[in-house]
UniProtKB/TrEMBL annotation:
It comes from the Bacteria. Pfam families: DctQ. It comes from Magnetospirillum sulfuroxidans. The chain crosses the membrane at residues 21-41, 53-71, 92-114, 134-151. Signal peptide: none annotated. Residues 30-161 form the Tripartite ATP-independent periplasmic transporters DctQ component domain. It is a multi-pass membrane protein. It is found in: Cell inner membrane. The complex comprises the extracytoplasmic solute receptor protein and the two transmembrane proteins. Belongs to the TRAP transporter small permease family. InterPro entries: DctQ (IPR055348), TRAP_DctQ (IPR007387). Part of the tripartite ATP-independent periplasmic (TRAP) transport system. The lineage of its organism: Bacteria, Pseudomonadati, Pseudomonadota, Alphaproteobacteria, Rhodospirillales. This is TRAP transporter small permease protein.
Length: 184
């Protein structure tokens, strides 16, 4: 269990690093959007590339922070139904939901999006709009974002199992009497 908890910690740190880095893309998207609007209305000109950059940035924020959002327990949940249940029952519900809903959906989307990205990359697909951008970077965001989500789902399940087995309290802190590195 100690090795799995270390793996969980690595996944948590990865998604934290990605999530905190991607925050800055929101500011960049706002600046690009504002700059595009100012140029469009003051100079009466525009570029599809700038509009597509906004779309790419929004996609990056949405897709690359899905795992970080799960780590922070901020996804839409059924808390209204489970808030009165014990923490152990909630852990079981999280495990069930991860195994039977999150993993199948995220793995399927990730798996099905890889050939779409590869085809776009190999063919050098360009936007159909005049002056548009290459498309493969945006298509790479899909399998990457869902891979981060799958990894974080695995981390969350590891933490729930560790909690249920008494290795940690409250999905993160080591349980009293348990010390890292000891075999059980």
């Amino acid at each position: 269990m100690t090795l799995l908890l270390k793996l969980s910690g690595l996944i948590d740190r990865l998604n934290t690093m990605v999530g905190r880095s991607v925050y800055w893309l929101i500011l960049l998207a706002v600046l690009v959007s504002a700059g595009n609007a100012i140029i469009r209305y003051s100079l009466n000109t525009s570029s599809n590339a700038w509009l597509e950059i906004q779309w790419y940035l929004f996609s990056a924020v949405f897709l690359l922070t899905a795992g970080y959002t799960l780590l922070r327990n901020e996804h839409i949940r059924i808390d209204v139904l489970t808030s009165g249940l014990s923490q152990r029952t909630q852990a079981w519900i999280d495990i069930f939901g991860g195994l039977f809903f999150l993993f199948p959906m995220a793995i399927m989307i990730m798996w099905l999006s890889i050939p779409i990205f590869v085809d776009s990359f190999v063919t050098g697909e360009l936007s159909s709009d005049a002056g548009g951008l290459i498309r493969w970077p945006a298509k790479l965001l899909i399998p990457t974002g869902f891979a981060l989500l799958v990894l974080q789902g695995a981390s969350e399940i590891i933490k729930r199992v560790a909690f249920l087995s008494g290795h940690i309290d409250h999905y993160g802190a080591p349980a009293a009497g348990h010390h890292g590195g000891e075999s059980e």
